Amino acid sequence: MSLRLAEGIYRIVQTTRNAKSPHKHWRKPHSCNSNPEAENHLILKFESSLNPKKEQLIPSTLRLRFWLAPLVAMALSATPALAKKLPPPPGDHVFTLTPTPEHFTEPGVAVNPQNPKQVVVLYQFPAHSAYTTNGGKTWRLSSGVAPKNYKMSGDVSVTFDNHGHAIYSCIAFDKLGTFNYWAHGATRNGIFVRRSLNAGKTWQHTLRTVSAWPTKPGIPFEDKPYIVADTGHNKYSGNLYIGWTRWTLTDSLIMLSRSTNDGRTWSKPIPITKERGLPRDDNGALEGFDGAVGPNGTLYTVWAHTDHIMFTESHDGGKTFTPTRSIVHTAPTMFAIQGMSRANGFPQIAIDPRGGPNGNPVLYVSWSDYRYGEVDVFLIRSTDRGKTWSHPIKVNTDPAHDGAAHFFQWLAVDPVSGAVNLVFYDRREDPSNRKQIVILARSTNQGKTFRNYAWTHQLFSGRGVFMGDYPGLAPYGNKVYAA
């Protein structure tokens, strides 16, 4: 049995030509870069589902793809090894979003559940956004996105709340501290939110503060926020949550703030675990927060710590959290990938709110690690609200121990169909393990087996390029958008 992609796919493509990787995310603001050949370009292009064209990629190209894929799902059979190249999805649409190339990376994607034709993409260097109101047929850039009173902004994430408003979070700062020891020498920085009441067309001028610090010795550095919305029908419906890593001179913490008034104001940040990690952006830190909300309003969260993925939940709208516990032992989630400036396998958590056979919502967690030697993408699931978890399964379908790296995965579950989707970079077609394509992995049997599709076909290199830490993905109603 197989999975059929019934119609076309929209995707944003980011190309990079000989870009030099800034330390961390931004060593220099993009406006200081005078070399147009060292920047990224966002593209959106069409391929007919009946007669798909071959997309031509240039060498040293990094692609940031945005797909809309109406899908007809059937049971999937396991395919542990492939005798030929992976099949492409049968049709896609790609448009150019940015008029000029820049350092564009780390996108966030959100679909409005009240009007699925409205989709917003956020991306960084500094914060930018694009939007569509017709399901991806046409795209426009937004204005007034980035905070004006900081030199740099990024680490964007975006969601739609239960009012149909788009809300994005980001970090903003003037200058980074010591490389990877971000709190050392940190300047003023913080986490901020902007709201859009018209599906990303315009963003309110008011910049809402979640957490901010003035420049003075010993301040923390706030990093990698992720925003989550409760769009269900429960007593916490409408709540918004942002979790992130707080770097201090002595440790790292996972912090959380919540909003109960459509993102206008935010609660005082609290640590959601008693654990404290190392103070360096490397193995041993608490890093990679992600969250998902169940139908009853339970907030489930994960992050990485040493060789474990940690898990906690809140049953009172983000006021308090259960004791933190490890749900899976991993290899270290910070690792080296040949030719890449940095790489990690930070986890994501997603939920199928429709419920499994026992009526409970199904939880999924994905990450990357090198337990088999090469870096692979893995997934576990829980059908009892996170009490127990399945044995890890490998999402990429090439054989274990083949030496091919698979990395920078992102997980999202279709809230309508329940299909499990992941996007990641994949080197199975390069015997030298230096170049990659982009893969869509999809499961329609609750994550038991996956079908892999090639979203690009010509190998491209990441050498000398900062590719970011993650892509973006948002499925809805058997349509998959990825950036």
What can you tell me about this protein's structure?
With 483 residues, this protein is mostly beta strands. The protein has one domain: Neuraminidase (6 Propeller). Helices cover 0% and strands 40% of the residues. The protein has no helices and 32 strands. The chain has strands at residues 4-5, 12-16, 40-47, 71-72, 92-95, 105-111, 119-124, 128-132, 140-141, 152-160, 166-173, 189-196, 208-213, 221-229, 240-247, 252-259, 270-271, 286-293, 299-305, 308-314, 325-329, 348-352, 362-372, 374-382, 393-394, 406-413, 420-426, 435-443, 451-454, 460-461, 473-476, 479-482. The strands form nine sheets. Strands 26, 27, 28, 29 and 30 form a five-stranded antiparallel sheet that branches. A four-stranded antiparallel sheet has the order 6-7-8-9, with no helix packed on it. The chain has a four-stranded antiparallel sheet with strand order 10-11-12-13, with no helix packed on it. Strand 28 and strand 29 form a beta hairpin. It starts with a strand and ends with a strand.
Q: What's the rounded overall pLDDT mean? A: 83
Based on CA inertia axes, which overall geometry fits?
A: globular
Q: Which topology does CATH recognise?
A: Neuraminidase
Query: Which spans of ≥5 residues are poorly predicted at pLDDT below 50?
Result: 1-83
Architecture in CATH? 6 Propeller
CATH class: Mainly Beta
What is the number of independent domains?
A: 1
Strand content bin: 35-45%
Q: Using the CA coordinates, give the radius of gyration.
A: 20 Å
Structural class: mainly beta
Percentage of residues in helical conformation: under 10%
Largest sheet: 5 strands, antiparallel
Give the beta-strand count.
Answer: 32
- Our count of helices gives 0
Cα end-to-end separation: 28 Å
